[in-house]
Amino acid sequence: MRIEIFGPEPSCARCKASLKNARKAVKELGVDADVVKKDVMSREAMELGISLPPALVIDGKVMKLGAVPTTDEVRAAIEKVRAGLA
């Protein structure tokens, strides 16, 4: 599983909090996932339609946009993707 947080470079406080919450959710669930930060000005962000950071993307699916996802929200998004509902 690949979890990406899209935001500006250098990272802002909201993106850092998003990364922290994503890593915490991955650890709590015990899933094998890469959690990475990506630049919101990248081609990939444009292709995904991301214009309002921070954005949480799991396996290429935009799960939250424009706000810091809580650990519970990240956990729920991971479960949704794993279940094939997203």
Name of the CATH first level: Alpha Beta
Topology order in helix (H) and strand (E) letters: EHEHEEH
Residue share in β-strands:
15-25%
Low-confidence stretches: none
Order of strands, widest sheet: 2-1-3-4
Question: What fold name stands as the CATH topology?
Answer: Glutaredoxin
Task: Let me know the number of strands.
Answer: 4
> How is the main sheet built?
4 strands, mixed
Distance between the termini: 13 Å
The outline comes out as globular
Average pLDDT confidence is 96
How many domains in all? 1
Task: Describe the 3D structure.
With 86 residues, the protein is α+β, with helices and mostly antiparallel strands. The chain has a single domain, classed as Glutaredoxin (3-Layer(aba) Sandwich), CATH 3.40.30. The protein contains 3 helices and 4 strands. A 4-stranded mixed beta sheet has the order 2-1-3-4, covered by helices on one side. Strand 3 and strand 4 form a beta hairpin. Helix 1 crosses helix 3. The chain is globular. The two termini are 13 Å apart. 30% of the residues are buried. The mean pLDDT is 96.
Give the topology, please:
Elements: E1 2-7, H1 13-29, E2 34-39, H2 43-48, E3 55-58, E4 61-65, H3 71-82
Parallel strand pairs: 1-2
Antiparallel strand pairs: 1-3, 3-4
Helix pairs in contact: 1-3
